[in-house]
# Entry
Amino acid sequence: MSLLSKLRCAFTLGQGVLIENKALTTTDDPISFFDNWLKEAEKSGIILPESMSVSTSTTEGRPSSRMVLLKEFNQQGFVFFTNYGSRKAAELQANPFAALLFHWNMLQRQVRIEGRIERISQQESEAYFHSRGRGSQIGAWASKQSHILNDRKDLVDSVKYYEEKFAGKTIPLPDFWGGYRVIPDSIEFWQGKADRLHDRFVYTKQPNEWKITRLNP
Ligand SMILES: Cc1cc2nc3c(=O)[nH]c(=O)nc-3n(C[C@H](O)[C@H](O)[C@H](O)COP(=O)(O)O)c2cc1C
# Structure
């Protein structure tokens, strides 16, 4: 490694450059690989390492992206929660494919996940909804996410309305709110390395296994 690379590495806390990524070739399960990377991101002190970009696209092929929080993942897929009346929901209704993106800059790592998307069951959404604080539950009821808000006061009034409506009661899951699961058919792990000789490898879903391919950086 050149002196410049070493300096750059030190300045960027370049663990990505320094850590030999031994696991790269030793696992055939991208979900457990992702689990390791997310845990390392948590340990490294990155704030909200579970935040990710979700990209959707209209049927005309116009993409849009926004950040959400990953709340659950397993062999079935990657789950986030949102408003089913939002812009992303409308795009997903018309074109049920999404791309997720994580960037853990301190570790010089990126993960790209692509696949079909589906709504999770109402029971699963219910369980998560009731695990949230009361304020978040009221917020879900009060916000017509992605729709025009003429005055912030309207939102504050809406919160007040639902606080009174549900006072002393269990707040039900709104029928316009819940989770989506991205069922991955492709997961790419990117590890920054010195001199732009980064490591990239892609897991592509086959009927009974994942195929692993390396890509040029
Ligand atoms: C770090 C971060 C986390 C977020 N998490 C969520 C989330 O979990 N669910 C959600 O609906 N919006 C979340 N948002 C807000 C979205 O980025 C977005 O503004 C909202 O979902 C509306 O998007 P849409 O109009 O494209 O549907 C988050 C924003 C940030 C910056």
